[in-house]
Amino acid sequence: HVQLVESGGGSVQAGGSLRLPCSTSGFPFTDYCLGWFRQAPGKEREGVAGIYIGGTGTSYADSVKGRFTISQDNAKNTVYLQMDSLKTEDTAMYYCAAGSPYGGDWNKAYAYNYWGQGTQVTVS
């Protein structure tokens, strides 16, 4: 069955870095777009970064552009989110997702079929 498992979350000081791996199984990894979303208390889930099928391109929310990097390792069926220069406003639960969004919909949660359970990131 399909599984997406995030890890790597934790508490970090502002300006620090974290790397979030998302290990996947149960679906053809290279046939799907992969995304990272986050949700802070009282806020809607927002798309943070997306990587297109086969890693052919990436997109980022303006709020993280230049600080976050999404990548994938096809041999390990794993997608990563490298987060640098973290800010307090990056505090949220982070989720990875797999789906088939149209180009402009990479940051739309409804476009993704499979989701992980999330990992908490707290920046102070």
Could you explain the architecture of this structure?
The N and C termini lie far apart (37 Å). It contains no helices and eleven strands. The strands form two sheets. Strands 2, 4, 5, 6, 9, 10 and 11 form a seven-stranded mixed sheet that branches. A four-stranded antiparallel sheet has the order 1-3-8-7, with no helix packed on it. By secondary structure, the chain is mainly β. The mean pLDDT is 95.
Task: Give the structure's gist in a few sentences.
The chain has 124 residues and is an all-beta fold. The protein has strands at 3-6, 10-12, 18-25, 33-39, 46-51, 58-60, 68-73, 78-83, 92-99, 112-115, 119-123. Strand 7 (68-73) and strand 8 form a beta hairpin.
List the uncertain runs. Answer: none
Number of helices: 0
- How far the N terminus sits from the C terminus, by CA atoms, comes to 37 Å
Cα shape: globular
Order of helices and strands: EEEEEEEEEEE
* Radius of gyration (Å): 13 Å
Give the arrangement of secondary structure elements.
Layout (H helix, E strand, L loop, with lengths): L2 E4 L3 E3 L5 E8 L7 E7 L6 E6 L6 E3 L7 E6 L4 E6 L8 E8 L12 E4 L3 E5 L1
Parallel strand pairs: 2-11
Antiparallel strand pairs: 1-3, 3-8, 4-5, 4-9, 5-6, 7-8, 9-10, 9-11
